[in-house]
């Protein structure tokens, strides 16, 4: 009996627990089914589920993929749009972000720009209720046809890829396409340095289709002259006067005519940098070489050291300027100025050599005439300042040159006593070259006196002509 009672109690307790647990789980299941029934319509684990969150994300409302919407698999995008018909027009729009560098040595420039293409491909047209475009990145660009525009005369170029490739593709429902890339290109610029550094350079970036000639693809500026826009660009050595867009045709003997677009920009060099680094130091060296004209002619160490110092400094300036320039085969404006200034410095050294030589000859003649004691050492007197001066020498005046007899009765009154020269008329024979040289040797100090005036006036005349021609 006891066993039966215990068994009945156990069975009753088990059924009560099962009833309570089943009720709770069935209630939970019922609530879950009600929640999913109100908010879902597609199957998830055997049931149709449709979350309200899908209405906030447009990608979940699409029934087909973008590739299927644009029908990419149905067309051969290796062929251009409208193949076999008229040339497809491709508009170009450029916004220059910066000019990174301009190299005179390599004759090139580096530019970063946004290059935008506009064309129409009806194969990519798609139905749209709100007529809104769709934007894609570089992953879809590789699956469709895009213009093969390249940069003529470019040395290096690349598309920026941080953090992703800077490529944008925008497709409109009617098939119009906008394709934009951010690219940095280093291109050749044929520079003319004949007026350097007072020069103005005209550089251009040229765009052209590589495979399609004018029968297949027609490049043009999308908005005419307004198709080229620039940000505020500041360069260290150049001032950008203006940008200009132009177009033309390029002919290749094997493939035909191609449309070519040009981005022309004019660069004018700032002169102030070169005035500080080249012209002002050169002027100072030339003026410094003139100081030797005021130093006593017998101060050999002072004048020689000053002349050699200025010559070596000018050589250093010329070498520094030449090392930063391309090795062109013509003469530049800065070369004319530097070498002319170097010539003035060199002539100042030669001037003292002439003064020294004339002074030596003068003193040697004095010794032969007995004006100077035979024990006097002329070279020693010239080597040390203050040992021998002009007032220590006895300079005899030149004897008047007697007139040379001639057959002219007007110039030889002694031959014809009846004809006398008119009173007050003085006849003077012009000195010969040798006599002028003897006069210069006898008065060597006059060379310095003349140089003090001749050198500055000549250099001033040169500067006037130079800056009037090149400025």
Short summary:
This protein is of the alpha+beta class and 471 residues long. Helix content is 35%, strand content 23%.
How would you characterize the overall build of this protein?
The protein has 471 residues and is of the alpha+beta class. Strands 1, 2, 3, 5, 6, 7, 9 and 10 form an eight-stranded mixed beta sheet that branches. A four-stranded antiparallel beta sheet has the order 4-8-12-11, with no helix packed on it. Helix content is 35%, strand content 23%. Helix 5 (300-323) packs antiparallel against helix 6 (333-369). The termini are far apart. The protein is rod-shaped and about 120 Å long. A hairpin with a 4-residue loop joins strand 1 (88-103) and strand 2 (108-120). It is built from nine helices and twelve strands.
Describe the structure using short key phrases.
471 residues, alpha+beta, eight-stranded mixed sheet, four-stranded antiparallel sheet
The H/E string reads HHEEEHEEEEEEEEEHHHHHH
Through-space gap between termini: 131 Å
Radius of gyration: 48 Å
Low-confidence stretches: 24-55, 381-396, 406-415
**Shape descriptor:** rod-shaped
Report the sheet with the most strands, covering strand number, pairing sense and barrel closure.
8 strands, mixed
Helicity range: 25-40%
In DSSP terms, counting alpha (H) and pi (I) runs of 4 or more, how many helices? 9
DSSP E strands, number:
12
Strand content: 15-25%
Q: What is the averaged pLDDT score?
A: 79
SS class: alpha+beta
């Amino acid at each position: 009996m006891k066993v039966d009672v215990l068994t009945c109690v156990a069975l009753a307790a088990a059924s009560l627990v099962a009833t309570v647990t089943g009720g709770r789980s069935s209630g939970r299941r019922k609530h879950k089914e009600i929640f999913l029934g109100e908010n879902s319509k597609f199957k998830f684990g055997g049931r149709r589920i449709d979350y309200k969150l899908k209405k906030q994300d447009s990608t979940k409302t699409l029934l087909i993929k973008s590739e299927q919407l644009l029908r990419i698999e149905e067309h051969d995008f290796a062929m251009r749009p409208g193949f076999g018909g008229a040339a497809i027009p491709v508009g170009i729009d450029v916004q220059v972000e910066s000019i990174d560098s301009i190299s005179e040595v390599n004759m090139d420039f580096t530019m970063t720009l946004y290059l935008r293409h506009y064309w129409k491909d009806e194969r990519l047209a798609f139905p749209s209720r709100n007529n809104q475009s769709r934007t894609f990145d570089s992953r879809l660009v590789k699956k469709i046809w895009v213009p093969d525009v390249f940069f003529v005369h470019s040395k290096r170029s690349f598309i920026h890829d941080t953090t992703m490739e800077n490529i944008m593709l925008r497709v409109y429902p009617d098939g119009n396409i906008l394709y934009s890339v951010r690219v940095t290109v280093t291109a050749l610029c044929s520079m003319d340095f004949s007026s350097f550094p007072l020069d103005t350079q005209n550089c251009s970036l040229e765009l052209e289709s590589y495979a399609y000639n004018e029968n297949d693809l027609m490049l043009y500026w999308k908005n005419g002259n307004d198709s080229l826009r620039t940000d505020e660009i500041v360069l260290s050595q150049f001032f950008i006067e203006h940008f200009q867009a132009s177009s033309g045709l390029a002919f290749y003997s094997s493939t035909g005519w191609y449309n070519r677009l040009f981005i022309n920009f004019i660069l004018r060099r700032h002169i102030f940098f070169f005035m500080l680094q080249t012209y002002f130091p050169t002027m100072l060296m030339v003026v410094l070489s003139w100081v030797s004209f005021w130093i006593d002619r017998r101060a050999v160490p002072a004048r020689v050291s000053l002349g050699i110092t200025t010559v070596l400094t000018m050589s250093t300036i010329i070498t520094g300027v030449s090392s930063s320039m391309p090795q062109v085969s013509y003469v530049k404006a800065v070369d004319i100025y530097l070498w002319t200034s170097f010539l003035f410095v060199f002539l100042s050294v030669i001037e003292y050599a002439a003064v020294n030589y004339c002074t030596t000859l003068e003193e040697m003649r004095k010794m032969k005439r007995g004006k100077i004691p035979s024990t006097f050492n002329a070279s020693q007197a010239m080597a040390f300042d203050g040992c021998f001066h002009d007032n220590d020498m006895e300079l005899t005046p030149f004897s008047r040159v007697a007139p040379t007899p001639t057959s002219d009765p007007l110039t030889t009154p002694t031959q014809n006593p009846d004809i006398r020269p008119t009173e007050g008329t003085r006849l003077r024979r012009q000195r010969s070259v040798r006599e002028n040289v003897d006069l210069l040797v006898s008065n060597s100090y006059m060379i310095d006196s003349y140089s003090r005036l001749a050198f500055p006036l000549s250099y001033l005349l040169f500067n006037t002509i130079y800056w009037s021609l090149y400025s």
